[in-house]
Amino acid sequence: MAAKKYAVLAVTSLGALLSALNFSTLIIALPDLIRSLSISLLSAMWIMMAYMVSQTVMVLMAGSLADHFGRRRLYILGMLIFTMVSLTAGFVHSALWLITLRVLQGMGGAMLMANSAAIVADWFEPHELGRALGINVMVVAVGQIIGPVLGGWLTTDYGWQWTFWFNVPFGIIAVLFAVKVLGLSFQGTKTGSHAFDMVGVASYILAVSGLLIALTWGAIKYWDQWEVYLGFVTFVIFMPVFLWNESHAKDPILHLSLFKNRTFGFGNISAALLAISRMAILFLLIFYFQGPEGDSALKAGILSIPLAAGMLVFAPISGWMADSFGALLPTTLGTVLTVVGLVGLGLDIQVHTPYWQLALWMIIAGIGSGLFNSPNTSNIMNAAGVHRRGEASGIRSLTTNTGMLISVAFSLVLVTQSIPKPAMLAIFAGTVRGIRHYQAKGSITGFIHGLHLAFLVMAFIAVLATILSVLRADSLRPHGSRSLDSIKQPRL
Q: How confident is the model at residue 335 (pLDDT cuts 50, 70, 90)?
């Protein structure tokens, strides 16, 4: 039995590794993608965000569907979709086709994310769960270390296509490994027909897409265009529709009653806020290294290693701390260190800032992420209880993904408001040194000013995450959170 559960942990960790590699290798390749396909910055942003939007929407359905049809089956299907799309994506040369394929890839990634933590929680006892999830987080950190370097090397020497193709052999191995270890037998926790919440899915897609379109379009183009107005109006109309539907639907994709448990609710909200703060660091520094600094994709990937190194070292330590002393200590320390790292970057970053200073702040922020993630996840999953793990895992992934999406769009807004529009693409494509000197000087000055603003705003958001994390109930005691199974709630 012990060997079996660690084999399960290895399977889910491999899926987590591929998901982390997929994101970090592509983000490093975005400047090359812009140059190679001669596409706009807006198109490049949506090639990246299409995966995240699709994953965020699907992750709600994936967690719920897994409770009905089996977590193992959905996990394996997700890996299969992820691998097939990775093979296809490298052959297309159209931004529209890449966006479409990234949507499909996001659906596969959602099936992995939504079920990974729930499968691990099924096999490990509550007092072991923190360490097990710590290993998952550690593997993600490995992916975040390898990803930028691997993506930089593949992009520099072979082209952006290989940031997709490298997934294929590992994906095939992962599928075969998962079938052998997990099997294809049913492992649902509910019976009966599943009423598909079409209104919930549609309203969420419209609301989130409208907000992201408005933010990215306004930041990259102009704020007084009808696309921006339409995006904001769509968000304002359909987000209330989504929330109303989820509170009244017979079988909603998001059970809002779960948030009545403070441990569960505050844990998820603090994770979303920290995801907003944390994602901005990698996203902005990649363009900083390849734009004003003029570094290659490979060098930019190497320079970003300290951000994930801290997470790699401290993720298993934080799991042990949570199992031994409760979630409050590592999660609070993690959010505080994230604030310190962001403030340091916000005050320190300039053109040609000594690298050791940037590396120091990245390491501190990375340690913060490593300390926070696994204890917070363990706290959430233990609070959810056995019968709600599929939903809880899906909601955890939803809140984190939503935070990452908002981070990309919001960071773009904060940074680009100080950059002259004609020179903006040059900075984000890494070709700023090829434009006229006076344009480059003004653009880089504006970009650095935008970085200061973005990092300091993200630090404030991390402070909010700290407050909410501290306020979660029963966090002072190990495994002290009352399970949602034990809390009397309305029938869902």
A: very high
At 298, list the tokens.
């490979």
Buried b (16+ CB within 10 A) or exposed e, 29-46: bbbbbbeebebebbbbbb
3-class DSSP string for 219-282: HHCCCCCHHHHHHHHHHHHHHHHHHHHHHHCCCCCCCHHHHHCHHHHHHHHHHHHHHHHHHHHH
Query: Nearest CA to 182 among 78, 37, 106, 42?
Result: 78
Share of the chain above pLDDT 90, in %: 17
Record the pTM.
Answer: 0.74
Kind and range of the H or E run holding 450: helix 437-471
Q: Which two tokens stand for residue 64?
A: 């719920």
Rounded to the nearest 10°, the torsion over CA 73, 108, 227, 242 is: 20
pLDDT at 196: 66
Q: Rounded to whole angstroms, what are the CA distances from 325 to 132, 138, 205, 321, 471?
A: 16, 20, 40, 6, 17
